[in-house]
């Protein structure tokens, strides 16, 4: 064994503050994938195949343990710190070592001995201690053996292919979850050997890794192709899939965002991000097998109080792959940062065969092609700082400009008091009816095309409607007549959306790639001689173009109270924030969804309920096939992402409850889903689905 000191050179592609190679060990290369182990101050790995090496990171001293005749294929630390146990497994025996006793025997000049708890089980791919360290789950071949010091407690005939990982559920007694190369996961009661649940085949590639998130009661599993699945373990959720993450796509999206923003402000970004975007045609792409999933301590990256609140209630986890390490945000399922081994010239290993991690963060990796094992120390804050400028971490203290650096025609619109609903139809009419759906209150006819949008005034006296006939009309609810008509000569394209704004002082409408701010005066009185002459007047105040888009697909502004903020989404999948007090765009968020946003929904509150002031900074976006995202205006970051409802092709609507605690969304599968949201920490969870005869495409 050879041990080298810190290798933190200052090469052109190396940032010594980000990652440092603390030690490099030379050993014979392993024949297969080996499970490595890391604890708070120790790392465990096989040395020269059949010797177990325990490296103390505090004293930088190795402890060598001999007891295996064949190559060690799996190593794991116990759950408790005192005494600290470690289990090593080969095809001929499984041994549990007490590190305190082993260290004492070495100091006395004696040979340390472990306790053999299993023999001749076959090729072992994974071992895991139970939460109380009294039992060990050994994944050997297609079976799982539950071992203790005295005997084999249970033998689970688990899967159709080798079992690659198993984890104990800490809050459910006797529950064990396993994944396998047969591409399924299973839930067991290992005390009785009973199979509780078996999933379907998730992918075409073997499942390699597994993590149980105790805080959110979820399991996360990854496959050899770079796909991640998150399943709920809450009792009444029936192991439903919460999210599916394609690591390759998330990496591509993250690189594009970082590279473009860095190029725009003239900032140095990761070398890999640059080469990734400039990759020549025909070049070979490396796969991203999910070798390890581990919790990540991401709080060190946050410095201001606002983002600290969000981070305290958000889970982050590491993804270990053959090419590098990734940090995933479990709240919005997006990539926060990644470390590519080949980006750093001070690292001896470019491609990893196996890896292990701690939260703080020590990383142990083995080389895929050579007999080397490296112990790395990663500075998470420095890693994030080099890839994400301050606008992604903390925002900007002065302005929102920081982010810029970086046919269903039936719609329902409720009145603020919930007594009446307005509806724009494809048959060119606007309906008003009672919210109990028992009677049609009024019908407005006059448009020559399908009605795209209907909006109530704050005083409940007026309705504004926009149509495919390129006209805008304001209707008097009481008199059942048109108060204002803006004809085709005013607009060069169809008006997609219109609403009252600033407590009925203005009208906002979007037309093509710009939105208009109109001032108006409504007068429904008639001259006896000129009854058909319109006495209402309307004047264009200003046009606001949205950058780099062909058409505005959604617009949102608050009319219930005074607000200068207007949000727009375009066909280029970007979201732009306008401050009408300044009269310009203040922020652009690129690639908000994988498709164009078809609705932006702000938390507008209600006069019938009170909310915390911070709650009004929240808004939601939705796109077909990409779920719902919850954003915060203070950070302009996606704080939460909601999936689970069916929205594959139709633009299903969303709405926020008056109390601000629920989001309602339509669905393709004839359901309306309710999601629970709290403002302080963005805690979320699906509560209930309501079944209907047809798909629900609008909510209000």
UniProtKB/TrEMBL annotation:
This is WD repeat domain 27. Keywords: WD repeat. InterPro entries: Quinoprotein_ADH-like_sf, WD40/YVTN_repeat-like_dom_sf, WD40_repeat_dom_sf, WD40_rpt, WDR27. It comes from Accipiter nisus. It comes from the Eukaryota. WD repeats lie at residues 156-198, 444-485. Pfam families: WD40 (PF00400). The keyword Manganese does not apply.
